[in-house]
């Protein structure tokens, strides 16, 4: 069975037979899957009136465990965005009532970003929708195939980092 990537690679082979195009079989599929997943995730999050970036920040706080707080620097590491972007995101989530900023008792100049009860309920509901979506997208895969795919993708991610 062929997909659109096979067609793209065949066209490149015709036009540039002098090049090693094999990596395109992997990376082009990952790129296309990323776009498809993004569309599905946006739909799942929209049920909760939440954007993907909001979920990323709230999920980082939720994963931190009680009391569900991190420094802005820790949030940067968790979400892979710039400092200016994170400041904007925290501001918008604070306006929404999903997070608060509090002085960091261990750093007189620092702040802690904390998940509010509203933010906790929001991220938990969005997570449930996300997991249901992701399970649906993998419904045709056997558990062993999922495990193998996760291992291959982990290896690819580690090698590419």
Supply the key terms.
single chain; 161 residues; Arc Repressor Mutant, subunit A; 2 domains; 68% helix
Write the layout of secondary structure elements.
Elements: H1 4-15, H2 22-46, H3 52-63, E1 69-70, H4 72-79, H5 83-96, E2 99-104, E3 107-115, H6 117-137, H7 143-160
Helix pairs in contact: 2-6, 3-6, 4-5
- Rounded to an integer in angstroms, the radius of gyration calculated over CA atoms is 20 Å
Q: Shape, please? A: elongated
**Terminal-residue CA separation:** 31 Å
The number of distinct β-strands equals: 3
CATH topology name of the largest domain, in short, is Arc Repressor Mutant, subunit A
Major sheet description: 3 strands, antiparallel
Strand order, main sheet: write it out: 1-3-2
CATH homologous group name of the largest domain: Winged helix-like DNA-binding domain superfamily/Winged helix DNA-binding domain
CATH architecture of the largest domain: Orthogonal Bundle
Helix content: 55-70%
> What count of domains describes the coordinates?
2
Describe this structure in words.
The protein is mainly alpha-helical and 161 residues long. It has two domains: 1-46; 50-160, Arc Repressor Mutant, subunit A, CATH 1.10.10.10. Helices cover 68% and strands 11% of the residues. The chain is built from seven helices and three strands. It has helices spanning 4-15, 22-46, 52-63, 72-79, 83-96, 117-137, 143-160; strands at 69-70, 99-104, 107-115. It has a three-stranded antiparallel beta sheet. Strand 2 and strand 3 (107-115) form a beta hairpin. Helix 2 (22-46) crosses helix 6 and helix 4 crosses helix 5 (83-96). The chain is elongated, with a radius of gyration of 20 Å. The two termini are 31 Å apart.
